[in-house]
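Q&A log
Question type: sequence-to-structure
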Amino acid sequence: MSGDTTHELNRRSFLKATGAAGAALAFGGVAAATPGRTPGPKENEVLVGVSASAPDLRAAVEPHLPSEATVVHDNEVIRYVAVAFPASADAARSRFMDAVTDADHVKYAEPNTTHHAFLTPNDPKFSSQYAPQMVNADSAWDTTLGSGGVTISVIDEGVQYDHPDLTANMSDAVSNHGKDFVDNDSDPYPVDLSSEYHATHVSGIAAGSTDNGTGIAGISESSILSARALDAQGSGSTSDIADAIQWSADQGVDVINMSLGGGGYTSTMKNAVSYASNNGVFIAAAAGNSSSSSVSYPAGYSECLAVSALDADGSFASYSNYGSDVELCAPGTNVLSTTTTDRGSYEKLSGTSMATPVVSGVAGLALAQWSLSNTELRSHLTNTAVDVGLPSSEQGSGRVDAYNAVTTQPTQSTSTSSTVDGSLGSSYDSDCWSYGWNYASPSQVEVDLSGPSDADFDLYVDDGTGTCPTTTSYDYRSYSTDSQESIVVDTPDTSTDLTILVDSYSGSGSYTLTVTETK
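Response status: OK
Response body:
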């Protein structure tokens, strides 16, 4: 799609408290602050309003000061003085505010409270965007713009990392800000800027530079790592994508964004997302664009959070896949973002590919504000989502909300773990375990298997059946090429015991099985 013409509009920050705006004006009657008075918030000060009937502001207040307090500033025009107290004198400060209002000429006494700027970014195309506003990112930015210490790996085509609205936020962890798995080299730059633009668009949505006076505003100021696993035609092999997932996890990224899909379930991809998830990475994946009643893979893997798309009016996008695996929805239709310079640098595109980096960007904002594991982050984003009145098969838990994600204290989870040891003698051997619940309604259960390094044990789980799974009939499976397996089940069915099969694909030895419930 070609870039749309947009009207440029200069933006500025303004104070939350309208009356405080007067502090920016150059009043002739404002006295200089006492030397040593620090700029910025002054939480230990009291502002005392003095009536015009008093000939001298300071003289009206100073006789009533306790020994530890000092007048540090006065304003003759709007007639107040600022009284500073030591940080440890909360009780004295409170007593002073109560008492001084009884003095002659004193109209009020109040804390010198702190105000914050409402950030409206100065990016000239922000007024033509709607996705950040729909998910309340512009409100979230008053709390945090995000942090370069949070890294989002974009597994996609190559990112044009010298784009003027991306270059400042590209990760410096590796040379050329990433790796090319298609051409097997260290430079993920697009090979054709006219046709290879998808990843550049995705990156701008998640983490285009905000408030830099250029172009659009990204959801977060996270760092971007480019893992080029799709070619200039937008296609890529399972192996290249799986390698990119594993490599991204090894770089220590916090978030993986996969605006890609197709090919169905594969064990290789499943093992790759399991590896990343087990290494603490939050993975957001596009539900798909075929109007199907089930999400595509990799979004269908339990390790990935599947994202569906909304139109600009908040309705469900007709092209978006849906189904029980959808966890969040986000704006995806006609989303304005960065594109390659050969295509005009900015354009609008549609798809669950565009909705997914909105979620990744919000994840980046949340991680800049809170210390969360990948599973905690996933729960936090779903817990703070906004119900937009769609069926759960279309919206999951709701529309992702940046403001809620950065201002809502994450729920403190409670967990309990049970461990059992066992052994398997050969590839014909397996053990079935039954687990009785500790919590009535756990939000999540995680089953972890740690087996011998020279064998290949696999893990199978049935949820809510009460019968032991088999290697051909199961609800969940972790089937990697070693004996380190993990399965996570959200909102498990506690009406019956959880049943677990540990099976030897090859080899023998001892293993440890751990079940962790979280509520």
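Response note: The chain has three domains: 27-111, 126-407, 415-518.
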